[in-house]
Amino acid sequence: GHQPQYNARSGPTARNEGVLRIVPIAQLNPYQNRWTIKARITSKSEIRHWQNARGEGKVFNFDCIDEHKGEIRATGFNQAADKFHPMVQVGSVYTISKGNLKPARKQYNPLNCDYEISLEPNSVIEECLDDPSSKSIPSQLYKFRKIADVQSMEPGAMVDILGVLQSVSELVSLTRRDGSDTNKRSISLADNSGCSIEATLWGALGSNEGVQLEQAMLSPDPVFVACKALRITDFGGRSLGTISSSCFTINADVPEMEALRRWQAEGGCSSLTALSTGGGGGGGRSDQRCTLGMLKEDVRQQVSSGSPVYLNVCGSITYIRHENGVMYPACPNKVGERNCAKKMREEDRGNERSWFCERCNFDSPTCDWRYMLSITAADFSGHSWLTVFSEAGEQIFGMTALALHDLQESDPPAYDRAIQEANFKPFVFRLKVAEETYNDETRIKSTVSKADPINYAAESKLLLGFLRKLKNDEPVFTCGAA
Ligand SMILES: [Zn+2]
């Protein structure tokens, strides 16, 4: 009739519909010259600059899906990047035409599509405003896998995860191999497979999405996150990392959510198997805490199985044993790549001071002063003896062992004051707890690898997380990953 024809020519989108035949993404192939797809943008990268022997340029890409759940990536170089990057917005629906179809570069492109669109400056991208048919296009396509399945999947594979957010770490800045700066932030997720895993958010994802997740964690309600396109790594057991097109959606509207909510409400997170071991001995996850009281029983049991346990405790120094000094004269000789560091013997050469290392058979007028001392530290749950070496000693006394040694020789009262000032100071201690056998007697030795001053903002966030765990009947303190 006449009425539908009139409507077909009224709005901008309707006009497009009339002129262009919309092709399902799944039917695109390089032998088609004229095609138009209608799709919602699910992710958009930043513009990246590159430089190599053939020249330099810039590139960006976006991923999109259509109403038939077909997905495809579009890439724009140089002029096309300048033109289209500011135009396309994640979540909006566009018609796209006049791009070149090329085989998908599967090493970079996790989408389930054999082709990708190479955008030219004369490609056409038009937003579909007020188009009711856009509602039938989903906002994201997920193929969720259970966290437990990640254990047996290949490193490098891509995965979508729907999980309960367990923790969000501080943003950490680091330097890339090429000298440029970036940052990262790690989060921990659990799901109804009964497992938890860590995911690292790199670059802008760590600073932008990471802040949103961090703020969501401040609410007392559980935070459910749908993660799209995370790469599996075998770093520290199994863990996940973002790529430029990774997406995080809080409380996503997906059918799998109901089962996860029910599992969480029934206390599912109270007993989890961790797939990530926090970097294999790096020193315990900074967002997991143990107590000094737990060193006596829980940690002892875990250590007796053989391998050392790394964990963090927050406590105050209550005693510094210093009758025999807090440092020793270490051998400065290089043995392989490391310093020998064995204790040197002071030789009596009349007026001259001389040091001798039996291991190296090495005679030297100087030695390398290093911290080695025992302290006790206490928290609300108990106290424990801890052994302190070099770096942690510098953190505790606020000066090098050489500086403190010079003070001891030149100004003994100032040396005593330096010891007293360190007493009763609070720290977050990073501990390595291991079994040690000495004279046929096996005991547990706790060594301080770091003594960080307390960052009160970070500590407050951690305590809020503990309150949430208490409310959900989840354990607050753990012995750390095995
Ligand atoms: Zn030596």
Give the C-alpha Rg.
30 Å
How much of the sequence lies in strands comes to 35-45%
Bound chemical compounds: zinc ion
Helix content percent band: 10-25%
Note down, in words, how this protein is organized.
The protein is an alpha+beta fold and about 475 residues long. It has three domains: about 1-135, OB fold (Dihydrolipoamide Acetyltransferase, E2P) (Beta Barrel), CATH 2.40.50; about 145-275, OB fold (Dihydrolipoamide Acetyltransferase, E2P) (Beta Barrel), CATH 2.40.50.140; about 295-325 and about 370-470, OB fold (Dihydrolipoamide Acetyltransferase, E2P) (Beta Barrel), CATH 2.40.50. The protein is about 20% helix and about 40% strand. It contains twelve helices and 27 strands. The strands form six sheets. Strands 1, 2, 3, 4, 5, 6, 7 and 8 form an eight-stranded mixed sheet that branches. A hairpin with a 5-residue loop joins β3 and β4 (about 70-75). α10 (about 400-410) crosses α11 (about 410-420). It is elongated, with a radius of gyration of 30 Å. Zinc ion (ZN) binds near residues 333, 340 and 357.
